[in-house]
Amino acid sequence: MTQIKKRPGIMAAFDMEDAASAIWLAEELNGAKGNFAIKIGRPLEMQTGKEIISKVRDATDLPIIYDGKIADIPYISAKISEIAYDAGADAVIIHAFVGMDVVREVVNLRGGDVITVIEMTHPGSVECLEPMSETLIRNVSAIGVDGVVLPATRPDRVKHLSGLLSCDCGESETYIISPGIHAQGAAPGDAIVNGSDYEVVGRAIYQSDDPKSEAERIYQEVLSRLEKLEGLVESERSGGDRK
Questions:
Q1: Of 173, 181, 133, 129, which is closest to residue 155 (Cα–Cα)?
Q2: Residue range(s) defining the domain that contains residue 38
């Protein structure tokens, strides 16, 4: 299993609908400079079948996340997750709102990382998920999921909810992935400077004339914003020390 590292990175959303493009892009990103991962979405899977996970696995050493947005009873959710792991996925994404019995069932498979959706990028998430998101993130954190999904389109929510991830040993090891960059309005770095670890970028990469270069450019843009933020923090700290 390829480890998903808890450090700033770009998760390329494979939402194209043909296998050839997905395999080619996986090969391209395999040699990209930076911290990258691949998220296989339902549009690609529905057009090509679960075998696309295995084909992408053969084309790259990057972590692969199956984004099935799994939301079913414990048995079915675990069965879907098991199929994805067996096909070569390093992680699966499931909805937290379906209940902690579902989350525990998938975690107990020990097949790979488990990432739970807490909030999403669209307006309906504010209406339906936001009222329960604080409870959800505390509960999945207590169970010990590997990652959570928070929206890059609302960086204030990333900042607030990331602070609710708990760990007995100090800083939480749960990584945060945040979709919504470019096509949905968020800018590279919006989520990461507020506590996220990975920003999810889809169309801006796979519809680019040079996807590998575009992925590297976006990654460097994120790092530049982080370095600027860290410089400001250090400057403020030094100023405070002189007082």
A1: 181
A2: 9-242
